[in-house]
Write a structure and sequence with these properties.
The structure is a single chain. The chain folds into two domains: 47 residues, no CATH class; 41 residues, no CATH class. 16% of the residues lie in helices and 15% in strands. It is built from two helices and three strands. It has a three-stranded antiparallel sheet with strand order 1-2-3, with no helix packed on it. The model has no long low-confidence stretch (mean pLDDT 85).
Length: 122
């Protein structure tokens, strides 16, 4: 996967999306669902019916922005540190691709995931 701000800008460095999407098989012809939540693609990977089968993978925003394993107020601080900038790490809203700058749309996506990894307190 790679991105660019406009059709005249250079592409960013490509990113491998992991084994759910990038297998050693022929994974191709990618399409995104209308709501931006599912990636559809063809693949001849094992586990299908044979030939090029239709596969799907969820599109989940990465909101652990400081890579500490939890989504919390520290990640919100990363968003606020880059508010108004064209900073792709924080540009996760509107889903799935962002809109070119860090703003309230990104904060909304982050808010949906805040503290979801935290253990329950009894």
């Amino acid at each position: 996967m790679t991105r660019r701000a406009t059709i005249s800008d250079p592409w960013q460095a490509p990113l491998n999306l992991g084994p759910v999407v990038n297998s050693p098989s022929s994974d191709q012809d990618v399409h995104v669902s209308a709501d931006g939540s599912i990636l559809f693609f063809n693949s001849d990977r094992p586990g299908g019916y044979g030939g090029l089968d239709l596969w799907k993978a969820p599109i989940i925003p990465i909101v652990d922005l400081n890579s500490d394993g939890i989504v919390d107020a520290s990640d919100m601080c990363v968003v606020l540190d880059h508010w108004g900038e064209d900073y792709p790490l924080c540009d996760v809203g509107p889903m799935p691709w962002g809109d070119g700058f860090v703003d309230v749309e990104d904060l909304k996506v982050l808010a949906e995931h805040l503290f979801e990894e935290a253990p329950l307190v009894e």
